[in-house]
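User: Please run a holo structure prediction.
Assistant: Happy to. Please share the sequence and the ligand.
User: Here you go; the ligand is zinc ion.
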Amino acid sequence: MFDELNEMPECRICYDGEKLNDSLISPCKCKGTSKYIHMSCLSTWRHSNIDGDAYNKCMECNQEYIIRKLYNDELRYLFTNNFTKLYTVLYCLTWVNALSIWSIETTDNYLLIKTLNNNNQNNILHDSTLYNITLNNNNTLVGNGLLTLIKYDGLSPLLFYFSFSMFMECLLFNMYFILKTCLKIYRKKYYFNRIKKRYFLSVVYSFQFIIWYYLLVFKTPFFFICLIFTMSIFGPYMISQLLKKHEVIILFMNEENDNRGEFILSFEENNIELENNIELENINNL
Ligand SMILES: [Zn+2]
Ligand SMILES: [Zn+2]
């Protein structure tokens, strides 16, 4: 009877024999018809009991499975998993930075805005007290009133420097994110294939400040400030979405992607010595 079973081993769950790419293993001390199980059948069974005892051991013979991982566990939390804390820190940091940059700007005669403008348009007079209008060298009207708004409006500088500060923060975050994942993730190809779309979206979103600046600021500066401020408010949300996507991918890589990341050794092959010892003990007892 036993010899017959040994000749034609079958899976204790699906009663099928050995399959191509899905070998039969004997992961525990069970004998007879319960001895063999497909790697995939065992994986399905274990994952239907992911929080229970059956995940780690055979419930019949109580033998713990010998689990080997092909890869180390990937880093699940890059920063924090507490998003309320993340939002609070990001918004507070942005306001502190915004106010700091604004106060520096008033002392260095708005170097930041001048730098931004010099790349695109030269010779802008900054002393006009008129809203939305400044004069260029030829004394013709151009629609650049950003500096006027920043200098003489109460709300505009707050919104503008908040947006700029958020732009810098998101940019730094994206750089830090790519650096940290490059250094910490082991299965890079698999990981980056899955994160790349969300990451690209996050980078594009963070660059909106610059894109809208050169598209709008010389025509409708106040509209630009309102638009970019609205966009900036969602900066931390974009960051949290990227972190959430990261977590989902890592969770899959660490736990659910069983066939790639994890395999279980046959109990017998790894415990020949142990079994021999038991047999010797039994003989001695006889
Ligand atoms: Zn099976
Ligand atoms: Zn067992």
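Confidence is low (pLDDT under 50) at residues 1-5, 119-134, 139-144.
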